[in-house]
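ARCHIVE RECORD
Type: protein–small molecule complex
Small molecule: calcium ion
Source of inputs: curated submission
Record status: active
Notes field left blank by submitter.
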Amino acid sequence: MNPSASSPVDQQPEPALQVVILAAGKGTRMRSRLPKVLQPLAGRALLAHVLDTAHALHDARCVVVVGHGAQQVREAFAGAGQLGFCEQVPQLGTGHAVLQACPQLDDSGVVLVLYGDVPLVRTQTLQPLLDAARGGALAMLTVRLAQPAGYGRIVRDAQGRVSRIVEHKDASPAELAIDEVNSGIIAAPAAALKRWVGQLRNDNAQGEYYLTDVVALAHADGVPVHGVPAADADELLGVNDRLQLAHLERVMQRRRAEQLLRDGVTLLDPQRIDVRGELVCGQDVRIDVGCVFEGRVELADGVQVGPHCVLRDCRIGAESRIEAFSHIDGAVCAEGTRIGPYARLRPGTELARDVHVGNFTEVKNSSLGEASKANHLSYVGDATVGARVNIGAGTITCNYDGAAKHRTVIEDDAFIGSDTQLVAPVRVGQGATLGAGTTLTRDAPAGQLTVSRARQLSIAGWKRPQK
Ligand code: UD1
Ligand code: CA
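STRUCTURE (tokenized, with ligand):
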């Protein structure tokens, strides 16, 4: 008896998915030293977006075909999981590129071909292609374009079945009138695709091995060819020059802004926000115009971000307010903080709840305890500041002696008068007061007033010199 026949349900796993990503092209029109697939889109390499999409497909194993700038591309993605590379030198066309990947591809399951410079395609758009390929067909993502120039055109036979793709440069005037175009993205059973790719010829206008010619080979083999129309033409946009890159950046940012709005974030103008990383927001977050978010940024419930702020790799606690033109990088702020306008928080800043950091104040590698304030024109670097400390305008921690950095410690309830310099290492005791203008070079005792300025004197009867 066949043991598998006893199983009530067919528990065969889905056949393996292998993804080939074409990324060998030069990208001449970018006019850049950076290989095209490393150009940033929303703060990350084009190829990173394509790899995200590929990895979101269940159990995909990726092979990236590199050529121009191969070493740089490999290094940029060293350590990315489930990723193989193969080199295509010289670059003789998209079919030739897939041929280079063939030795790394199993014959079982299906192969999906993605382009390293087509970064907006979504996994749900690819799903019907994979389903068709798992059913034994060759499937490609197509789109109708009002201006199809430059793209390969989908040619159908009298029955309406896809019979071949003709590249723009090889097309007849009648074929050029076809507005259904090839996105370049295809899926096919692995064994068949490997066979077809081995049969490609380069007798065409560009002398290249076109991947698109596998369509005619499949048709000749009697294998069904499915043209799967994409719902959203934007997904198939490719990057060939910086105009297109700029356009894709806007498309990507609009997508993100719309997602934030759907998630319940208020954006005063969804056209004027740039998220170049991951932005995680609580409830009732409000973001004014012109803000840039980089790396991973978390804004807790009720946070308000004023116009033209830059936030990178930071966490902002609930009900905090970041006022206009503030720059926050590598900082952690607890609930109820007030920052800016024009404040700068640098890496290693930790603000406890209800801390205020005001205009033209810079904080670096320092912690400020609950309800402490540094509201105007100060530099707080390498400092440990307790709770309820008032740091007056123009206070400077002199943390650097030209060779090493030193810490300043200010204990709870201290009051630092305006225009004070704290020459580190130095400690201000609990409840101490520093008179305005003090240059503190030794520790200030707790509870006392410490002043280091010359005593004020007035000279009666003094006359100004005459000219
Ligand atoms: C290709 C398709 C065309 C489709 C268009 C969609 C072919 C022959 N044509 O044309 O039908 O409408 O995409 O954008 O496939 N690459 C390599 N090695 C090579 C050549 C290219 O890795 O030898 C890579 C490029 O880096 C790029 C991708 O393949 O990521 C597409 O190459 P490109 O030259 O831009 O193809 P198109 O002429 O745009
Ligand atoms: Ca292209």
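CURATOR ANNOTATION: The two ends are 122 Å apart (CA to CA).
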